[in-house]
Amino acid sequence: MLYFNNFPKVITTDYKNNSIVMTNLMTRVEIIPSLLQNPLLYYSYNYRDSDRPDIIANKYYNDVNRFWLILYANQVMNPQWDLALPANQFNVYVNDKYATAANTANVPVETYTTNTIYEYRKTITTYDSTSGTTTNKTIVIDLNTYNSITSGATTTSTFSNGTYVSQTITTEAVSIYQYELEQNEAKRSLNILNASYANQIEKEFQTLMKIK
């Protein structure tokens, strides 16, 4: 299926006031969010630097034209920025984004992004001896709060039955570069639609686009 062939057409006029038919690229449909969590429909995929949607589509559906299924399943609107950038493109992106600020500070971009703090974080690690589970919760804090916390300090509450809950608080100063890298890496986790459902999704997509 050729993706853009299914978009509805609209009649408009050109600069000479001639009527022309154009494809309405602004039309959108999406998968119901709850379905994205269905383990029968999808499995997880780690997007690599050598990947592209068409490469993945060819690998799993034997059809490069099904690249749109990769984007559709992950609600990707802009493939250039909504998917993880390879290392070389990521560094270009960071350099371009912070070049002006680095120039103002009169330092190289690499120095600026690695030495400038983007945000401060506090992580609370809780251990419950009853369930034997450990949970982590991270929140963004301000500089004053960051300076007031003793990182690594642990408090323990013990109950009469001998069970206990302990909490350890750690802090972290996150540089601009680290933050941007985390944001990029978070885009590597993709949902890949099970090939068994590909034909059905294509038909439903075509039906929805006709309704539009």
Number of domains: 2
Q: How many helices in DSSP terms?
A: 8
Q: Helical percent range?
A: 25-40%
Strand content is 25-35%
Mean pLDDT: 90
Rg, Å, rounded? 24 Å
SSE order, one letter for each helix or strand: EEEHHHHHEEHEEHEH
Distance between the termini: 18 Å
Total strands: 8
Major sheet attributes: 4 strands, antiparallel
Question: Outline, from the CA principal axes?
Answer: extended
List unreliable stretches of 5+ residues: none
What class would the helix/strand composition place it in? alpha+beta
Strand ordering within the main sheet:
5-4-7-6
Describe this structure in words.
The chain is α+β, with helices and mostly antiparallel strands and 212 residues long. It has two domains: 3-82 and 186-211, no CATH class; 87-184, CD59 (Ribbon), CATH 2.10.60. Helices cover 36% and strands 28% of the residues. The strands form three sheets. It has a four-stranded antiparallel β-sheet. Helix 1 (53-61) packs across helix 2 and helix 4 packs across helix 5. It is extended and about 75 Å long. The two termini are 18 Å apart.
Short descriptors:
single chain; 212 residues; alpha+beta; CD59; 2 domains; four-stranded antiparallel sheet; two-stranded antiparallel sheet
Which SSEs are present, and which pair or pack?
Layout: E1 9-13, E2 19-23, E3 42-46, H1 53-61, H2 67-73, H3 79-82, H4 87-105, H5 109-115, E4 117-128, E5 133-141, H6 143-148, E6 153-158, E7 164-175, H7 176-185, E8 189-193, H8 198-211
Antiparallel strand pairs: 1-2, 3-8, 4-5, 4-7, 6-7
Helix pairs in contact: 1-2, 4-5
